[in-house]
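A quick aside before the break. I want you to see a complete sequence-to-structure record at least once, exactly as it would be stored in a machine-readable document. Don't worry about memorizing anything.
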Amino acid sequence: MSIYLLQGLVLGFAAAVQPGPLMAFMVTQTLAHGFRKTWMMAFAPLISDGPIIALALLVLVQMPAWLQRGLNAASGIFILYLAWSAFRQWRHFISPEQVAAPTGQQGIVKAALMNALNPMPYIYWSLVTGPILMAGWRESPALGLTFILSFYFVFISGLFAILAIFSAARGLGSRVSRAMLGISVLTLAGFGVLQLSRALMG
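That is the input. The structure line, written in tokens, reads:
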């Protein structure tokens, strides 16, 4: 097995299971609306990561501190907005089947925007996956493609699996769904405050 294929599989799995604001947002929406109405959000990284990868490879580890602080601030504000929206869903909770869910396009756009405003993908592609991709590409473009395709295959598949698991939790009843939705609200709010604190303390 190619070392680049193996690295893509391992890092893709790590990215899928890593807690973060994008994951918290997707779980919140899945608890509220179910897998059938939110599965498209698993493709959000494919929309947002293209420019992130290009930028990371261009500047790699030379991102200025002010830009990272700005991304932290923008990410924190947007995440807190999403937390407020999720709180309103929790406060006025009704049976999930009766909730008017956003269209798949709206959900995936919000998820992609959150990912684009989150500094972690920039740092991740600058410090971890970017150098591997560049090393593989220099050896052979096929090796670079092997790495990035295996990475996103496992990453997206992992997101699908996680959303399906949390969607299944909705079947345990409205009380459980509302409680899990409340936990997701707190998680989103926590990530928003953390991002803002990083911007202020950076």
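Two observations worth writing down. The CA atoms of residues 116 and 202 lie 19 Å apart. The chain has a mean pLDDT of 77. We'll return to this after the break.
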